Amino acid sequence: MTIKLDEKYIKKFASDAELAAMRARVRAAHDQVVKATGAGSEFLGWRDLPEKYDRDEFARIKSAAAQIRSDNDTLVVIGIGGSYLGARAVIELLGASDDGLEIIFAGQNLSSVELDRVIKKLDGKNWSINVISKSGTTTEPALAFRILGAKLSEQYGDAARQRIYATTDAARGTLHDLATQNHWQKFVVPDDIGGRFSVLTAVGLLPIAAAGVDIDALMNGAATARRDLAQSDDLAGEYAAIRNILYEKGFTVEILSCFEPSFAQMCEWWKQLFGESEGKDGRGALPCSLTFTTDLHSLGQYVQDGRRQVFETFVTFANSPVEIPIERAPDDADGLNYLAGKNLSFVNRMAYRATAQAHFDGGVPNLTLELPNIDALSVGYFLYFMEFACALSAYTLGVNPFDQPGVEKYKNNMFRLLGKP
Ligand code: PA5
Question: Is the dihedral of CA 335, 338, 341, 345 positive or negative?
Answer without folding.
Answer: negative
